[in-house]
């Protein structure tokens, strides 16, 4: 995972951040790696002073490590404080830059800083890092509207939406139809996927399997959302948490079996077995040492006797 994250720190991404910093500050950064140019924290403090109100933050240009790390911490505190309010997942740690622990997080922080600074002070930060969007996205006004996914924002027209010119609220399947829109109609249990009245995209009729209700009970028709039923979607074989391997509040093991976690009793049993094995090995070592000592004494006695006989 660390190698995968480090691979995201590409020369193209670093050059894009370098160009944005140079255009914003109006000065050139030293050559070489981008992290080496930002390591002393002076450039970061200059960017922060452009985004926040006077008097800004004080910094020193020095070759001493603790002063350079202090400059970086000043920049991070400015990102956290108003008016920037960068969240924690967009900020980096001091060691991520000073010791190159996570260069990707440094680029992510500068990208988030550029977008936030552009929103706070667009005169000093006219550009941002990364792609730019034409406007805010809306879940209710898609299609060819000004605030939706139009051709000017993403390159192609997705067609007019059913809700872009009629309503600005979220779709509610159990809401009553509006009288101002003649095309709106109440939900009908006879207009399902295989009904006689449904139409295909080429205005041709679909299969004539007969009307099939989308509700489980007759009393729920038109009063609640359509339910899944075996007539339209088939029998799911009694799917449940048990046979699908799902447990709320626990991690789901998809590709491999869950790791075996021993209980306290099993841990105690293994500890006793280990203690008994250690004791057996100790006694065995003592017996072997005693046997060697006896043999050595016997050899010394034999040598003494032979010496006396000579």
TrEMBL record:
Domain of life: Eukaryota
Gene3D superfamilies: Calponin-like domain (1.10.418.10)
Residue ranges with Low complexity bias: 151-170, 203-216
InterPro entries linked to this entry: Calponin-like, CH_dom, CH_dom_sf, SM22_calponin
Region Disordered, residue ranges: 121-224, 256-310
Biased composition (Polar residues): 171-181, 193-202
SMART domains registered for this protein in UniProt: CH (SM00033)
Entries under CDD domains matching the protein: CH_SCP1-like (cd21210)
Domain Calponin-homology (CH): 11-118
Segments of skewed composition (Basic and acidic residues): 265-310
A Pfam family recorded for this sequence: CH
Record-given protein name: Calponin
